[in-house]
Automatic annotation (TrEMBL):
SMART domains named in the record: Elp3
Family membership: Belongs to the anaerobic coproporphyrinogen-III oxidase family. HemW subfamily.
Pfam families: Radical_SAM (PF04055)
Molecular functions (GO terms): 4 iron, 4 sulfur cluster binding; coproporphyrinogen oxidase activity; metal ion binding
High-level lineage: Bacteria, Pseudomonadati, Campylobacterota, Epsilonproteobacteria, Campylobacterales
Name this protein carries in UniProt: Heme chaperone HemW
Entry keyword annotation includes Secreted: no
Names of the cofactor(s): [4Fe-4S] cluster
Amino acid sequence: MLLYIHIPFCDSKCFYCAFNSYVDRFHLKQTYMKAIEKQLIYDIEHYLKDEKIETVFIGGGTPSCVDFKEYENIFRIISPYLIENCEITSEANPNSATKEWLQGMRDLGVNRISFGVQSFNDKKLKYLNRAHNSNSAISAIQNAKCIGFNSINCDIIYGVQGDNFEKLKYDFNMINDQNIDHISAYSLTLEEGTKFFNKSHVKIDDEELSYKLFDYLKGLGYEQYEISNFSKSKKTQSKHNFGYWEYTNYLGIGTGAVGFVDNFRYYPNKNIEQYIENPISYEKEYMDEVDIKTEKVLLGLRSNVGVNLAIFNENELKKAKILIEEKKLYKVDNKIYNYNFLLADEISLFILD
């Protein structure tokens, strides 16, 4: 079982961000964290049962907006259920991840930090409405390394108006120069409810740029193991993300989070005030076999997880065989894998249609 905890507070709302987050509810921090504790206890009792928690991911929003002391009870609650050497990741923004906060979270048990850097270009950061600058990003990374975080990820966003290969090379070189072992590189998406939605001019659709960036990262030693994730070694890959792609059950704690147990997803209340009032009120979505199969294929082909051939019917197996013959897919033992993650959606639709 995986554990995801959502912290919805942010210093500023990025113009591309569609996640459930608030810049004007800081007065609710303490009561929200208490609500999280209540949901966590309930979910552990009803869904975890005799299982162990294999990974923890604290995301947002901005987890570093909340004082590390407010996480103490959460770690006290989950501690008995964690596997040995459990991967525990927290997202953080450079402007709020102070040295004191990083040290406090490490002392609680966090052993992996994911910084929302997005760019080392101050003009681009301002365009995205990020709350930090390039110097604060470098400082936060150096502080984390000084404290003893050996596993650090940096998020980079590309495909933004003004981006080009040289500018993005600079971002990746900056990360590599800091001896960071993991990069998540996301192409900008224009999602409903964001400032950038319906502003097509802010996004660059350039598939050739994506391929050039992937090749460049490989040259720096970052191997692609999912459409947006690159690591220096198998050891530094995100175990939590792999759990999602392998369709592992996960608890979803917090307003706007999502949990998945066996054949249903559950959704805590997206409204923070209503969530605080009743954190164990969920909407549930039951998944049928077709839904689960479709997601397994999509997730497997956009990552190194691959897809077990046993889930396909006779017609789908014939299509998979065609793709193997055409060198679009390759087979190892009883699983198929994708050469080109950018084609994952098209390949999946071809097989399943």
